[in-house]
Structure formats: C-alpha cells, structure tokens
Amino acid sequence: MAKESAESLSVFTQAATQSVALPDISALQAIYTIARGSSDAAANILSYEMMRELGVPVTSLPPSVFSLGDGVAMDHAAALVVSQSGASDDLVRSAKGARARGARVLALTNQPDSAVEAAADLTVPIGAGPERAVPATKTVIGAIAAGMALLHALKPAYDPAPSASALQDIAPQHPDAQRLKSAFLRARHVYVIGRDTGFGAAQEVALKLKECCALHAEAYSSSEVLHGPLQLATNPLMVLILDTGAAPVQDSLDQAEARFRDAECDVHRLRPRDVIDADLLPAAAAALLLALMYPVILDTALALGLNPDTPETLSKVTQTT
Known about the structure:
4-stranded parallel beta sheet, 12 helices, alpha/beta, about 45% helix, globular, Rossmann fold, 2 domains, 5-stranded parallel beta sheet, 9 strands
C-alpha cells in the first residue's frame, strides 16, 4: 500500500492527460454511474464534476438493477462503469444490461481486456499498473483522472492538463500527518465531511478507515450532517473535513466546522493549499486530498498492529451479485 499510494499522483498525471476518442454520443440526457466500493467513491467525485460541466444529471445506479432485475430504460443515456478489475459479475451484467437497454456504456478500468471492457462501447484505461494491496489507492486516483480525461473528450473546454501538471511533482505527505495519525488512534467514531467533489473523497476516506484500521467512520455532506447526524456530536467524535478549496462550498464547510467545534468535537480540516499553491479543478483537488490521506491511514493501521495490505476479512477482487 505504501508503494502503490506513493505512485498515485504520477498515475493521475498520466491518466488525466490521455487522449480519448469518443464513440458517437448524441442527444445525451443523463449519465448513470455504476460501481461499488472505492470505485463508487471515485464515480461520486466525477458525478459532481460532470454535472457542473455538462449540465446533465449524473447519478449513481445500483448494479442490482441489472444483476438481480431486468434493468431500466437507458435511451439517450450513458452508463459509466467504474471498476479496477472489470471482473465483478454484477458490474459485467450491468454493463451488458445497460447496453441492451439503450445506453452507451463507458468504462474506466485498470485491467486490460476485462469482461467489463468487452461489454463497453468505450474503455478509458486507468493505467495504474498492478495493484496488489487489497485497499485500492492509485487505481482510485487514476479512475478520477481517467474520468476527467473522458470529460475533456465530452467537453473540450474542460482541460485537466494544468491540474495534472501542478500535481505531478507533489510529494503525497501532509504536514500534519502525525497529528492526524494521533487523532485517529484516539478516535472511536469518525465523521468524514466534504461537499461537492469533496463528498466523494469523504466516502473514500471513511471506507479506508474501516478497511485498513477497523475504525468506525461515516461520510457525510457538510449540509446533510447538520440534520440528524449532528446529534452524535454529543458523544466523543472526531471530525475530518476534506475541503477542496472550491469557493462555492466554503460557507457550508465553515458552518459544519463551527457547529462541531461548538460541540467540542476533535475537528481537523484539510485543504490542497496545505501542500500546493495552485488552482486545481475540483476533481483534482479531491484526488490530492486522497493522496494525502492514504499514507496517514496506512501509518495508523500499522500503529494499531494491523496489516493494511491484507485486511483479515477482505480480498482484492470482491465478487458480488
């Protein structure tokens, strides 16, 4: 995990700047993302970026619609299937089913010649190379980047190249890594909070804390968390805010931070500007926050006596229905 996560920003630069030749996609009215686990977090990040840039709905569709049911009408829509292995049976069925019901199937995968790729109209390779640790790191960040390259093909004015260039020489090490590790070691319950593309990043960090550290963590939008979930602040709670730096989300994140500090929670806020002075696209900022968090989660797991490369109950490719 240490080696692979250290390669993540290099993978990002390569995947984000690749050329994508689109199939004929006319009258596109919606995009449905289909993914599970870390890939679903990457898809969530991309959904916000694509909605902002394309002006069409982009939302998650559960694979079970196709793997357990007869599917749904997909005319004038694209199905974006995100899968590092491209091998999970429910995702393969979803790709085939979406295409049969009228969708253009676009895939982001890391394994060449996968079953998902065979069912897709277009595959944008993640290109991360072999990833052997069970927790996905460089393939998650590569999937975000590959999706940005796809978005560039859909809308040429959207250009991920400047963000990719800004990140290529960044060492994925947060200056407060030790303080964050100490906070995780004290914590029993963690809220990971974001907004827009930062919400997908929050989902991925919460998943990694569970996967690598066996630590209870939940991801929330900074607006949603102020409803019922805020009540858990009456118990000892660590709050990690992932701030992409995007201007429209600042008021929401500020309000959430103030409310949790008033409740005397252990609050930490991470921003891209902690390590870089550059204007990043929101999806690239989310990818950078993940790259900064992966080493902290790894070190926390090791301090707990756990082996994050091979979590006890997990395997690299999860077969689900």
